[in-house]
Design a protein that fits this description.
This protein has 386 residues and is mainly β. It has one domain (2-384): Maltoporin, Chain A, CATH 2.40.170.20. 0% of the residues lie in helices and 66% in strands. It has strands at residues 2-10, 25-43, 50-72, 75-101, 104-121, 128-146, 149-161, 185-197, 203-214, 218-221, 226-229, 233-245, 250-263, 279-290, 293-302, 318-328, 333-340, 348-356, 365-372, 377-384. A 16-stranded antiparallel beta sheet has the order 1-2-3-4-5-6-7-8-9-12-13-14-15-16-17-20, with no helix packed on it. The chain has a two-stranded antiparallel ribbon with strand order 10-11. A hairpin with a 2-residue loop joins strand 4 and strand 5 (104-121). It is globular, with a radius of gyration of 25 Å.
Amino acid sequence: MIRNKLDLFSNFTYFLDDPVNGDQFAQPDRRVTTGLDASHTWETPWFGRDSESTVGVQVQHDNIFNALRRTRARQTLSTTRQDHILESSVGVYLQNMTRWGDKFRTVAGLRADSYRFDVRSDLAANSGRAGDSRVSPKLNLIFGPWAKTEFYASAGTGFHSNDARGTTITIDPASGGGAGKVTPLVGSRGLELGVRSEVVPGLQSTFSVYRLDVGSELLFVGDAGTTVAGRASRRVGFEFSNYNRATSWLTIDADLAYARARFRGSDPAGDRIPGAVEGVASIALAVDKVGPWFGALQLRYFGPRPLIEDNSVRSRGTATLNGRIGYKIGADTKIELEGFNLTNRKASAIDCFYESRLRGEAAPVADIHFHPIESRSFRVSLSHRF
């Protein structure tokens, strides 16, 4: 069981909607989450083949009290909406792994999920119940190994859930106008082809290409400080991962990924997905077994990304260098110093493009709004294992 309490205050547009008090709003959230995750695996030989099957069940229930309030200096001015949400989900799955020969095996699975939403809003028109279910088949075909190299093909379906309040809404509590309900569970389909190899001594490499279709993208809306269900999308890309044990005390991780993300269908606004990162890279060096000393250094890079659908405004790339060094005091005790943003780089962690207005400005201004990465910081930790 998890008990969580959050008081979140935000102001994305400054004085756009309320030139006197400003646009600050609060999103208090109180919730208790309970759940169960159980599975059982047993040998299931088919026609004399090595095979094992797993059956499992996952259950989760969230009891949520949250609200949206207009505030000034964190003092409540008015309540836009207030809700008590009960959200329950049950997932049952079956997975089978069968080795059909020395060079071919399969991993197949089937999962069924059912969600139930019960929203009790302070505005009766936005209260109600909704539910949805999804069945998601998955299949993996693995060929090899040949010369310490194997190939695989994977395909399957999945989903993401939308905000429970959106599944029962009929009236926009901010404007009083009509509002459309969102689909509780949005389906997705994925396909991946890849190769894994250890042909180079000490080096493990994986390269894969993929395609992912999502029925509806969740997009950030700056003037509302929330997400809305957007158009269907498709992502096509590749991932290249490498792990090398250079020596008995040094390991190297190097990863590179690229994704071409586009909305599906025609729209005059454009087909780019705002905020969808195109390129990501990481390289890390880890040192261990140097007497009592150990440590690591990691460089991460997030490439530029479109901020609006027509790609006319883009963010900059972001690179950070993090590291740690530690000393083993004993077999069960160690002390560690971690450093974040070691070069004290001035960059943004999040970029969005929308209209806002500062105090005294005569008209709204469309511009890039960003959340900076943390400046150089350090953390010392002492741990002991009993």
